[in-house]
Amino acid sequence: MRQLNERDKFVVVTPYFGGISSAPRQTELSNVTRYFVETYKNLKPLSSQFIVSVSNDNDYETVKDLGFDVEILYVKDIDPIFLPANTSRIIQKRDFIQRYMYYTEADQLLYAKDIHRMLDTLEMEKNAYIVPQRFCQIPNEVIDRRRVRYRDRNEDDDSRYVEFDGVDKEDDNKYCIECAPWELATEESTNANMSRKWAFSPGTYDEERYDWFYGKYWNPAYDNRLYSNSINDEAYGGAYLCHMDLFKRVSFGDSDWQPTEHTAGHDLLATYNSLCLKTIDYYDFHIDHLSGYDFNKKLFRDDWEVAR
Length: 308
Description:
By secondary structure, this protein is an alpha/beta fold. The chain contains ten helices and 13 strands. The strands form two sheets. Strands 3-2-1-4-11-6-12-10 form an eight-stranded mixed β-sheet, with helices on both faces. A five-stranded mixed β-sheet has the order 5-13-7-9-8. Strand 2 (47-54), helix 2 (57-65) and strand 3 form a beta-alpha-beta unit. The longest helix is centred in the N-terminal third of the chain and has 12 residues, at 32-43. The chain is globular and about 50 Å long.
């Protein structure tokens, strides 16, 4: 990844939560801090300001004791599942000299072939936000189980399972591309009888300019019906890079349904005139979702027979 000069470095924001909340978690508690350390080391060279939010004393002391060059934002008296949304709303009220915002979960490493090209895209279209492809290590022996479970998502496509040398790679495992498109050619959604035609930019944006992106998901008007549509998953990646102009316009809300996902993507997709972009080449801009391996190691252990 090419280095950024100081002018182009961006604000990095990540919530850190090392406890138990009302929402199920897939990260093994023993790995929370280790994953955050890897995330910090990965993103610090790209950041001119690194903000980590916490919601309890233990997490505050844990992050503080690491001695990293970060601002710790302590958000008190909230349900921890709403830490991401509260963090974003607080930060929105600030004035930044930086032009770009990168939001991520605290267990994801970013890889970009040409970060400058990404930033140039955001300068050309400030309503756009770029969502990384989400790589998730999966034990080879459970790939067939995942294909059965997610047969409705075209998971039998071999292109969804790629070779990647992640920091935690074991046993020559492959990585699954989570949140890749299910059926880009589908015009009608099976959910809520909602047309998906308008979710794609109909020539409004310069197609040649974006010809290296497949995900031209465009929202010409605020419409939270997107939340009931599969497009929601396809435009998600657990992180996003955007211009500060767009970040300031997003309405981050507390939601009992997928609370972390709302902040990390759904709320941006629902923002007026937003344009979500994902790269055609999986390797152009992607993250290694470290905690996903915790989940995949025990994938469908209990419901394999039912799913089959």
